[in-house]
Amino acid sequence: MDSLVTANTKFCLDFFQELSKVDEQANIFICPLSISAAFGMISLGAKGSTADQISEVLHFNEVSQSKGTEPEISSKEISQEDKKDQQKTSEPPNPQNTKCLSNEYRDSDSCFGKLLKKLDRIKCDYILSMANRLYGEQEFPICAAYSDSMMEFYHTTIESVDFRKDTEKSRQQINFWVECQTQGKIKDLFDKDNITKSTVLVLVNAVYFKAKWEKSFDYEKTEDSPFWINKNEQKNVKMMRQQNTFRIGYIEELKTQILEMNYIKGKLSMFVLLPTFPAEDSTGLEELEKQMTHEKITEWTSPTIMCEEKVDISFPQFTMESNLDLNFILQKMGITDVFDEAKSDLSGISSNSHLYLSKAVHKTFVEVNEDGTQAAAATGAVVTTKSASPLVTFNVNHPFLFFIKHNKTDTILFYGKVCSP
Fold first, then answer.
1. Among the listed residues 213, 128, 198, 132, the one whose alpha carbon sits nearest the alpha carbon of residue 167
2. What distance in Å separates the CA atoms of residue 133 and residue 174, rounded to the nearest whole number?
3. Domain range summary for the chain, segments of one domain joined by +
4. Which of 32, 177, 196, 317 could cross-link to 12 by cystine, CB 3.0-4.6 Å?
5. What is the architecture of the domain spanning 219-317+373-418?
6. At a CB cut-off of 8 Å and minimum separation 6, what does 408 contact?
7. Global pTM?
């Protein structure tokens, strides 16, 4: 499972950099795990170059190559519920149900099954809803084996709808399901123009997250303060403040502070990376974005790098909504065949040779306030902790990066950039 977490992080950073190319000063908020899981569902029924492209872009091929290299887990760390899950996921598939599936990348599918179960188990401490589902034209029969594997590995189903004869009803059905899955925060996922009579397969991908801070901010200390978009432009924001003990570190090579703010019970954390004050006409994030890798994130967030100190935090309230056309972005990254009717090979999903992915969107919502977060996702560098001082200042009054991580599995659930709260 560790190799899948690594693959998801690599895809997250690749995807983020592709988005940043479009507009370097735009706010970004994504749930890489949800996108990876959604396209894992597609790759489960893909074959040939269609499967190869998805596997390479999402780094699923690296999960395959690392088979047998996962670290052993102590029996003391495995609960009875974990043992039951392991037995379920290790049971050999029924040969009759796998004849139309591609087994080349099944390591990632099995790992997804285990990972999603671990995340589902602790929802008593926070709400995390990943609304991933496929909707297929009812005239395209779905392989029973594919439906069974979707439920086993990705805990969802493929729904049959009548795109051709009842387009509007199908659109409303999809939008209503997403709205329910995301506590009403994501509405009208698909506009009328998105779903047409020619639509044959739609990948739905929406996320909702809500958690309270372990150390909340005092409402009475929140006040209007300037947030510098760059050295020449500023805006007033609601700036939250508190003084408390947090894990904090300093990346000397990039002149960047890194702070961890835990959510309740410490199972999830938000990590904030704050570079030095931006230069003219710059967010100050460009070099940091270029240097981000899975290995560096692991190093920068490790206990050997970050230590507990008394910190004076100023952190802005912010709300962001994002609605991304995955067709456009993923084709730029190298996933092309699945969107092309002439080239797509999804014969593991349906025997119909004309099946291809018509539309894929990713919509997210995030709100950060005093109580917590509500969301509907270098070589030669010297990394050190700042020298001890009575009070470390962490003033987030200019653009920053952040990500929300599930600490037990090291899974990045959400990744974002705030240039203008």
1. 198
2. 9
3. 2-211+320-367, 219-317+373-418
4. 32
5. Roll (2.30)
6. 118, 267
7. 0.82
Tokens encoding 138: 């009812």
3-state secondary structure of 359: strand
Report d(CA 119, CA 155) in Å as an integer. 12
Separate counts of helices (H) and strands (E) for the chain: 11, 16
Per the structure block, which two tokens stand in for 187? 């509405």
Instruction: Measure the CA–CA gap between 250 and 341, rounded to whole angstroms.
Output: 50
Query: Which pLDDT score is estimated for 278?
Result: 67
Burial grade of 285 (CB within 10 A; 0-12, 13-18, 19 or more): buried
Q: Per the structure block, which two tokens stand in for 411?
A: 């899974």
Type of residue found at 42: I
The residue with tokens 């009328």 is: 192
Say how far apart CA 288 and CA 383 lie, in whole Å.
13
Rounded to an integer, what distance in angstroms lies between the CA atom of residue 61 and that of residue 311? 42
Mind listing the pLDDT tens digit for each residue in 239-279? 999 999 999 999 888 889 999 999 888 888 999 999 987 66
Please give the class, per CATH, of domain 2-211+320-367: alpha beta
Helix (H, G, I), strand (E, B) or coil at 24: coil
CA-to-CA separations, 194 to 48, 94, 171, 202, 358, in angstroms, rounded:
28, 38, 9, 10, 9
83: Cβ contacts below 8 Å, ≥ 6 apart: none
